[in-house]
Amino acid sequence: MRRIPAIALGITTAATLTLTGCDAAKETAGDIVSSATAAVASAAEQKMNEVKDGVNATGDVSAGPTSTDGDRTVAEITATNPKDKNADYTVMVTFRDADGNFLDSVVLNIDGVEPGKSKTGTARSNRTLSGEPKAEITQALRH
Fold first, then answer.
1. What gap in Å lies between CA 140 and CA 66, rounded to an integer?
2. DSSP state letters, 82-93
3. Model confidence over 22-54: pLDDT tens digits?
4. What SS3 class is residue 25?
5. Strand-pair partners of 72
6. How far, in Å, CA of 107 to CA of 94, rounded?
7. Can you tell me whether residue 50 is helix, strand or coil?
8. Rounded to an integer, what is the distance from CA 16 to the centroid of its chain?
9. What angle (nearest 5°) sits at the alpha carbon of residue 102, between those of residues 110 and 138?
């Protein structure tokens, strides 16, 4: 009779160790994804910081719906120049899931937008995104 509880204890201990090992692996994988995501966001911010003499132009830029192109998510980005001379735009586009969680971020240049006109460019995710991501304009600079 005493052997049964010992065997049950052994099975319980092994199961606990196995579950703990899985949890640790999931946590490590989550940490890797978080680190990669933070690196992407940081690289996009760094690109935006490289723009000299740019003015906030978030109101000049809009993001269209997302679609897929191969294994990447894409969105058409439109810049409309309200000024009286040609302008270039540097735009940070963030892809988010349905819950608003950050998935990816890219920087797009739309150059030579004529006064009073619009021009489009395509924001393309850096990696495969799952679900139905939405694109949003995080930052836009006119220069």
1. 19
2. -SSS-EEEEEEE
3. 454 444 444 444 445 566 567 888 888 888 889
4. helix
5. 69
6. 9
7. coil
8. 36
9. 35
